[in-house]
Specification:
The chain is an alpha+beta fold and 121 residues long. 38% of the residues lie in helices and 23% in strands. It has a five-stranded mixed sheet with strand order 1-2-3-4-5, sandwiched between helices.
Length: 121
């Protein structure tokens, strides 16, 4: 079962990178590095660097653990910055695929404070 879930997740990551690149964005899958994981992919848009955590839900009854998943995205963004000696952290976002929907209909989730910091008044 774990291999099937990993395959679904890997396919989702590849599809999101292709979707972003087809629209002119710079995007790449990131390698898994165990407890110091740096996210599933990096994406550059509008001069901002994002570290993305991706989740492909199995079915409509699968739970949405947004808080936990966003926490994971934040930790991985910090790991990404540390591994590259960046002066600040990339913006962490969560991308969640809804079962039976296209990649373009995936949800992009972030904390309000992150969105506000990214879009100053």
């Amino acid at each position: 079962m774990a291999n099937a879930a990993r395959r679904v997740g890997s396919t989702f990551e590849t599809d999101v990178v292709a979707f972003a690149r087809e629209r002119g964005y710079s995007a790449e899958r990131l390698p898994r590095v165990g407890r110091l994981d740096e996210g599933d992919l990096s994406l550059t848009a509008g001069g901002h660097l994002y570290v993305c955590e991706l989740k492909a839900r199995r079915d409509r009854n699968s739970s949405l653990n947004l808080g936990s998943w966003l926490g994971e995205a934040h930790r991985e963004s910090a790991n990404y910055a540390t591994a590259r000696a960046l002066p600040g952290h990339p913006i962490p976002i969560l991308i969640v695929k809804s079962p039976g929907k296209s990649i373009g209909k995936a949800f992009v989730v972030q904390y309000l404070e992150d969105w506000i910091n990214e879009h100053p008044a």
